[in-house]
Specification:
AttH-like fold, 13-stranded antiparallel beta sheet, mainly beta, 377 residues
Length: 377
């Protein structure tokens, strides 16, 4: 899950001079979608918003060994269904928003970078099957490089991101260790009972990761494991919903767990679902009453003043799971400047059993906790 509706001033600026494009309605996520892989890894331009999301946990091969977390998310945001009727290479009906982060778990430092470009041959783009490039953009201003996600010939993915100002870069290859999982019935992931409040959503819940990370000018060979989400939709949040809590957990016993809960303004859950993936890759959907996630601590951001949950107890009785989720670094807030002034917490976590023993790793995403940071979907 990632960003959402409203917040139009920036998009209107990007569309300046491009106002006569056809105003076709966007497609909405609905039952009966016919999936086709690998083609569905590529962009779905009939839908207004789409994202390719990767997180992972890495260890360096050198001594002293470093433990790192990473995130790369590239969003495709549709402005109009048809291309603007301007004879210009700068005319665009789509923008790319990119978020990249690297968390030094040992050094207790979280670094965040962002890009925002219109889709033009010079700045950013989205490939068409079978072009291996799924999405790409120039690096942030002042950095000579490219951010990109590519499909590899062996069914995996290759990621690149760099921000010299933030002092990090990575080049990572990902290989699926389990088959992809459709999140929700036939991949329809509902976010409310209302028609259209849904996305089409699938995941690779466990990928092997190898590659290189550059941190403050020093290059490290790394290996570890990762998670991938791909979602596309036109609208998700209802007027009553202010944000979500989302968990991706990879357990040492081979199971993977995805959970999400959409919240009302008073903090109560409005809609919740989940998926448990077995060691063999088989998936079982979880309804709202089949799991709980209770926050036990809070952390306040010094930037946004958002007050976020900071530790949780997660239970899934049918799987005999009672887990404690602990952030590896308290401050893993991503504070965007380029689009919407969006603040959200996207952080690596460790998973522990009821005795305190470490039994897994994961990522948690928390949106809508900072003032004026309701996701714009």
């Amino acid at each position: 899950m990632r960003i959402c509706r409203g917040q139009t001033p920036l998009l209107l600026l990007l569309l300046a001079g491009s106002t006569h494009a056809a105003n076709e309605p966007w497609a909405t996520a609905a039952p009966g979608y016919v999936w086709s892989f690998p083609q569905d890894h590529w962009a779905h331009r009939d839908y207004r918003i789409e994202w390719w999301y990767f997180t992972g946990h890495l260890e360096t091969d050198d001594a002293p060994q470093k433990k790192l977390g990473f995130q790369l998310t590239l969003f495709r945001i549709g402005l109009t269904r048809a291309a603007p009727t301007l004879d210009s290479d700068w005319a665009a009906s789509t923008v790319l928003l990119g978020h990249a982060a690297l968390t030094d778990k040992d050094g207790q430092r979280h670094r965040f970078a962002e890009v925002l470009y219109r889709e033009t041959p010079f700045l950013a783009g989205f490939g068409t099957y079978p072009d291996p490039q799924l999405a790409w953009s120039r690096a942030p201003a002042g950095t000579d490089g490219i951010w990109r996600i590519r499909a590899t010939s062996d069914g995996g993915f290759a990621l690149e991101a760099r921000d010299d100002t933030q002092g990090f870069a990575y080049d990572i290859l990902l290989e699926p260790k389990k088959p992809l999982v459709l999140q929700g019935p036939n991949g329809l992931s509902r976010k409310a009972e209302a028609e259209g409040s849904a996305s089409l959503y699938y995941s690779f819940t466990r990928l092997g990761a190898t590659g290189d990370v550059e941190l403050d000018g020093r290059r490290h060979a790394v290996r570890g494991q990762a998670w991938m989400d791909h979602e596309f939709s036109t609208s998700q949040l209802t007027a009553e919903q202010v944000g979500w809590d989302w968990f991706s957990l990879q357990l040492e016993d081979g199971r993977d767990l995805m959970l999400y809960s959409l919240r009302r303004a008073d903090g109560s859950p409005d809609f919740a679902r989940g998926t448990i993936v077995g060691q063999d890759g088989g998936a079982r959907l979880l309804g709202a009453g089949e799991w709980t996630a209770r926050s036990t601590e809070r952390w306040t951001s010094p930037r946004s003043r958002g007050r976020y949950p900071a530790r949780w107890v997660v239970t899934v009785p049918s799987e005999r799971l009672e887990l404690e989720i602990r952030p590896t670094v308290a401050d893993q807030e991503n504070s965007g400047r380029l689009a919407f002034g969006l603040h959200y917490w996207e952080g690596s976590v460790t998973v522990h059993d009821s005795t305190g023993r470490a039994v897994g790793v994961g990522y948690v995403e928390l949106t809508g906790y900072a003032p004026k940071s309701r996701p714009p979907l």
